[in-house]
Amino acid sequence: MNDTKLQIPEETAGKLARLREYIGSLGSLAVGFSGGVDSAFLLAVAHEVLGERVIAVTTVDASVPEREIAEARTFCAERGIRHLIRTVDPMREEGYRKNGPDRCYYCKHGMFEEVLAVTRENGIAYAAEGSNMDDLGDYRPGLRAAAELSVTCPLREAGMTKADIRLLSRSMGLPTWSKPSYACLASRFVYGEEITEEKLRMIDRAEQFLIEHGFLEERVRMHGRLARIEVPAADIPRLAEEGLRQEIDEEFRRIGFAFVTLDLKGYRTGSMNATLPEARDKG
């Protein structure tokens, strides 16, 4: 149900009008759909504008938790949106496995290639991804892959920020409006540590354990056999309580971690990018 009581600023309403106009000009669209806040909003608006001329394409691999796939399925089923799920294998790329700063480029390139293949197979004119203006302020090699393959970025074309997207998503009654930001499990590794399916499963199990204990905004960062837990600063006291702290430590050790730490700076997206030279130069 739409939240009609929300006041939408004129600037945000103007961006939504531009987004609808831009999507309409495309004629038909395949949306790379992760089930997150941005791609869900883009898909919902595209479906409003294009109807059956839009399809959702979700690419899955070992770095995508089953809970995210299930939520993507539900979102499309409830709205009658055609949804295709394709399996990809970024592990085939050495640049991905070796986990350098450009790891995301190799993953996104393969993902967008699959979305484009679906686009061609179904006679769709364009493929789109869900990055917004805020994504331009962080190190995002995946955007280079989108540009190289001519995958369109409607939210950026319309000048949408994350705040715009959450507000408009709430006004449209989308369940994703308050969903925590999500990035694939491969983003949990310190740069230079090789990515394996076993390590991805370890992170998935550890994060699922935290989610089941009520920590909906969380990250488990892997530094060798050390797990560095990030939760919002307000949640740190609860996580550090004696009983729960010990329970988490025991479970993480069963999963395979030798050391379990709590990051006192708290949860923030892209914290691994702080190790990059350009990030250190910014202080």
Categorize the overall geometry. Answer: globular
- Radius of gyration over C-alpha positions, nearest whole angstrom: 19 Å
By CATH, the superfamily of the largest domain comes out as: HUPs
Q: CATH top level of the largest domain? A: Alpha Beta
Approximately what portion of the residues adopt beta-strand conformation? 5-15%
Number of helices: 12
Strand tally is 7
Cross-sheet strand order for the largest sheet = 3-2-1-4
Average pLDDT confidence is 93
Proportion of residues in helical segments: 40-55%
User: Might you state the CATH topology name of the largest domain?
Assistant: Rossmann fold
Order of helices and strands: HEHEHEHHEHHHHEEHHEH
Sketch the major β-sheet: 4 strands, parallel
Helix and strand composition category:
alpha/beta
Give the domain tally: 2
**Low-pLDDT runs:** 279-283
CATH architecture identity of the largest domain: 3-Layer(aba) Sandwich
The termini sit apart by 44 Å
Outline of this structure?
With 283 residues, this protein is α/β, with parallel strands linked by helices. It has helices spanning 10-26, 37-50, 66-79, 94-97, 103-121, 141-148, 154-157, 162-171, 197-212, 236-239, 242-255, 277-281; strands spanning 29-32, 54-60, 82-87, 126-128, 219-223, 226-230, 259-262. It has twelve helices and seven strands.
How would you characterize the overall build of this protein?
This protein has 2 domains: 10-178, HUPs (Rossmann fold, 3-Layer(aba) Sandwich), CATH 3.40.50.620; 185-281, GMP Synthetase, Chain A, domain 3, CATH 3.30.300. 46% of the residues lie in helices and 12% in strands. The protein is built from 12 helices and 7 strands. The protein has helices at residues 10-26, 37-50, 66-79, 94-97, 103-121, 141-148, 154-157, 162-171, 197-212, 236-239, 242-255, 277-281; strands spanning 29-32, 54-60, 82-87, 126-128, 219-223, 226-230, 259-262. The strands form 2 sheets. It has a 4-stranded parallel β-sheet, sandwiched between helices. It has a 3-stranded mixed β-sheet with strand order 5-6-7, covered by helices on one side. The longest helix is centred in the middle third of the chain and has 19 residues, at 103-121.
